[in-house]
Amino acid sequence: MALQPLLVGCETPPPEAALRKAVAALENSLENGDTGAVMDRLAEDFRYRNLNRKDAGRRLVGVFLRYPKRQVSFLNVDVALDSVTLRDAEVTFNALVWGGRATLPEDADSFRVRSRWREADGDWVLVDLEARGLKE
User: Fold this and answer.
1) Which neighbouring-strand residues pair with 72?
2) Using CA atoms, how far apart are residues 51 and 63, in angstroms rounded to an integer?
3) Domains, in order of start, for the chain
4) Phi and psi of 104, rounded to 5°?
5) Are 131 and 111 within 8 A, CB to CB?
6) How confident is the model at residue 136 (pLDDT cuts 50, 70, 90)?
């Protein structure tokens, strides 16, 4: 009984908490322009529209170069875990993004994002996503 508080720190987080942490890490990596960290979050079979993982990485580098100053916010994050496996999930959220070459944004947009995630080797990876502009 006396060791129980020590063991709590060693437990793996529940799947939803771990997934929310992965989504927040993706948000931070996008805002910080950390291509490597973003790519680490993408599954090997990742798909976005007609882009595979490699193509998405190339596009990401271009966006980071075009908008060296950027801000990214994920709002209204909703997680729906597969109740049977607890290893697959759908995460939906609103993404607000803006950026430019200087402090003031040159471009801004907002999207409704639906994403599918999978737990692989103890970490959550992004399998695919769909994004629609909130203006649509």
Assistant:
1) 97
2) 15
3) 13-133 (3.10.450.50)
4) -80, 135
5) yes
6) low
